[in-house]
């Protein structure tokens, strides 16, 4: 048997005398920037062209508030449509059926490859391209003929155009989410006796959400801003087009642009807050994210526990084969103490 | 009735290179796992031993043949088996929730199981916050939460370091001795197979066939460190390696 030599004690290192690092240039730059910012604000407050009284007058104008509501409605309806169509396209792209795959690919290719403004103009001309909607069987006299312009109001044309464009992007986002799930997870679920739908609902989709939510939040914010393009349809009741129309009458565009910007900013700020909440919720179990405070406290307590397990008695188990269980256990506990961070 | 009964099992996959050809993963595999018996399937990588387990678990369909199990089997996978968004305790409770066990009973059973696998302290942790060994214990505890008495294990300790593996092997034996489970344990490790099993089934290179069944003479309960001093340990190790090597040599001879 070989001898086990004793560890040699090492002297403690001296305490470190820490001096904070100085940043003279950084401070100077900061002062300069703050000065410029203040100068800009003071100047802007006094500048005639901004016309702050008009800004205050129109900020809560009924027409503006209604237009803000319309913009929100456009955003959410278009997003809902985009998510639904996007999921369908994502699933189509992952099927074994080559025809479905090709169709999904083609749809995504078209809608990602053309500008949304151009698409919206196209949708606006829908009623010129297809003047009537005929209900009936092909090659036979239609049962019902509808004027396209009568049955589909411009609002819904705008929603449709925005949604279909966005669906192409959502499809890719959803697909990335579904592909991010380790196949071991679905297998584990089905080994627990869960069916396809239950596995999707309880295992795959919630985890895919972690990947899907952040870019989708960005897409919502981006959609809110894209709604300003519906003037291409032409739909004129959204926030931007409405404020433009008002200013066209008053010949004073700048304060109304400010009004529109403030409303857009207000909505996007709320959305950003909502998004970070959602991200936190869906990232449960990820390292460094989302553990709720209650759990964190519980972990802190548990963190200390292994230290007790690794007390001298357990570590100093006989080196022979006498106590494998104790030795094995303390090995594991000692190891996890480090890993559990 | 036996715990697991595999009869004349074949599994073939379409070849990736040639559409008209198939790859035979399993060739006429038959084996029995008796009630409360611990059987290890030992084979080189790519021999189809995991396929055998996946078919037994119902994750894949056999091309031919049947697998019968006494109850719906619980499975412990090599990795990625635990749910990352649930805490250790919630993972263990999951099969119970699926069976709609009332909350109080569930909590009691989970506490019992966590005690059994030594994870009581870590009940509130997420899988990403614990070590690989602890994740596998969680996986074992979750499998035990299923009421069935058939347990399938697919190289559950394969991704762990050796010391953790030995510690978990010892614990698995202790836990298994307290339960009524019939176990089919897949491994590529000779040591692991003869340490754990009552009987070792040796499989050949692809196509996977059973080339030998070796009874392990060690009694229960086993101390797996002590086991290594037993002269029979070396003898059986030698025997199993010869079986595997002989098969490799034969496979190479066929290839040439």
From TrEMBL, chain A:
Entry GO terms, CC: ATP-binding cassette (ABC) transporter complex
Membrane topology category: Multi-pass membrane protein
Compositional bias annotation for Low complexity: 316-328
Keyword set, alphabetical order: Amino-acid transport, Cell membrane, Membrane, Transmembrane, Transmembrane helix, Transport
InterPro entries per record: AA_ABC_transptr_permease_3TM (IPR010065), ArtM/GltK/GlnP/TcyL/YhdX-like (IPR043429), MetI-like (IPR000515), MetI-like_sf (IPR035906)
GO BP term, example: amino acid transport
Predominant location: membrane
SUPFAM superfamilies membership: MetI-like
Subcellular location per the Swiss-Prot or TrEMBL entry: Cell membrane
Residues that span the membrane, as ranges: 68-91, 103-123, 143-164, 254-274
Entry's Gene Ontology molecular function annotations: transmembrane transporter activity
Recorded family membership: Belongs to the binding-protein-dependent transport system permease family.
Protein name: ABC transporter permease
Protein species of origin: Agromyces mediolanus
From TrEMBL, chain B:
Recorded GO MF terms: ATP binding; ATP hydrolysis activity
Residue ranges constituting the ABC transporter domain according to the UniProt record: 4-230
InterPro entries tied to this protein: AAA+_ATPase, ABC_transporter-like_ATP-bd, ABC_transporter_ATP-bind, P-loop_NTPase
SMART domains named among the record's database cross-references: AAA (SM00382)
Pfam families (UniProt xref): ABC_tran
PROSITE patterns assigned to the protein according to its UniProt record, in alphabetical order: ABC_TRANSPORTER_2
Gene3D superfamilies cross-referenced by the UniProt entry: P-loop containing nucleotide triphosphate hydrolases
Source domain of life: Bacteria
Keyword terms: ATP-binding, Nucleotide-binding, Transport
SUPFAM superfamilies xref list: P-loop containing nucleoside triphosphate hydrolases
Protein name, entry field: Nitrate ABC transporter ATP-binding protein
């Amino acid at each position: 048997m070989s001898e086990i030599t004793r560890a040699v004690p090492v002297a403690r290192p001296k305490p470190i005398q820490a001096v904070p690092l100085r940043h003279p240039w950084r401070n100077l730059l900061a002062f300069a920037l703050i000065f410029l910012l203040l100068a800009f604000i003071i100047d802007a407050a006094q500048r005639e062209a901004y016309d702050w009284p008009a800004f205050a007058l129109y900020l809560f104008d009924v027409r503006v508030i209604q237009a803000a509501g319309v913009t929100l409605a456009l955003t959410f309806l278009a997003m809902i449509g985009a998510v639904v169509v996007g999921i369908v396209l994502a699933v189509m792209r992952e099927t074994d059926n080559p025809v479905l795959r090709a169709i999904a690919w083609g749809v995504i290719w078209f809608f990602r490859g053309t500008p949304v403004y151009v698409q919206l103009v196209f949708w606006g001309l829908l009623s010129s391209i297809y003047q009537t909607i005929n209900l009936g069987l092909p090659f036979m006299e239609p049962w019902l003929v509808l004027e396209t312009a009568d049955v589909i109001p411009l609002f819904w044309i705008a929603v449709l155009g925005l949604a279909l464009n966005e669906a192409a992007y959502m499809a890719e986002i959803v697909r990335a989410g579904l592909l991010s799930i380790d196949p071991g997870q679905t297998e584990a679920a089905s080994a627990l006796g869960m069916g396809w739908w239950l596995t999707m609902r309880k295992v795959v989709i919630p985890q895919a959400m972690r990947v899907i939510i952040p870019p989708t939040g960005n897409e919502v914010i981006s959609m809110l801003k894209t709604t300003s393009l519906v003037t291409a349809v032409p739909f004129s009741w959204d926030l931007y087009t409405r404020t433009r129309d008002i200013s066209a009458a008053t010949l004073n565009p700048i304060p109304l642009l400010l009004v529109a910007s403030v409303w857009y900013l207000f909505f996007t700020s709320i959305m950003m807050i909502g998004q970070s909440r959602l991200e936190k919720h869906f990232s449960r179990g990820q390292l460094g994210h989302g553990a709720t405070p209650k759990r964190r406290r519980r972990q802190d307590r548990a963190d200390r526990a292994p230290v007790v397990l690794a007390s001298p008695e357990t570590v100093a188990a006989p080196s022979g084969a006498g106590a494998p269980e104790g030795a094995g256990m303390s090995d594991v506990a000692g190891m996890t103490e480090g890993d559990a961070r | 009735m036996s715990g697991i009964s595999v009869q004349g099992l074949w599994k073939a996959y379409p070849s990736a290179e040639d559409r008209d050809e198939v790859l035979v993963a399993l060739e006429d595999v038959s084996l029995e796992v008796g009630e409360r018996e611990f059987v290890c399937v030992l084979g080189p990588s790519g021999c189809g031993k995991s396929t055998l387990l996946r078919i037994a678990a119902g994750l894949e369909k056999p091309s031919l043949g049947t697998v019968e199990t006494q109850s719906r089997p619980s499975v412990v996978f090599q990795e990625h088996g635990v749910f990352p968004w649930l805490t250790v305790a919630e993972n263990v409770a999951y099969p119970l929730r699926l069976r709609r066990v009332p909350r109080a009973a569930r909590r009691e059973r989970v506490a019992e199981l966590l005690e059994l696998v030594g994870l009581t302290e870590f009940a509130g942790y997420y899988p990403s916050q614990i070590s690989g060994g602890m994740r596998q214990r969680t996986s074992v505890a979750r499998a035990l939460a299923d009421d069935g008495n058939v347990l399938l294990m697919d190289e559950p300790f394969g991704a762990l370091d050796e010391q953790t593996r030995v510690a978990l092997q010892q614990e698995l034996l202790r836990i298994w001795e307290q339960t009524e489970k019939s176990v089919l344990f897949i491994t590529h490790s000779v040591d692991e197979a003869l340490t754990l099993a009552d009987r070792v089934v040796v499989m050949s290179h692809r196509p996977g066939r059973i080339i030998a069944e070796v009874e392990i003479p060690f009694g229960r309960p086993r101390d797996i460190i002590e086991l290594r001093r037993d002269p029979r340990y070396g003898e059986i190790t030698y025997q199993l390696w010869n079986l595997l090597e002989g098969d490799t040599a034969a496979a190479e001879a066929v290839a040439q």
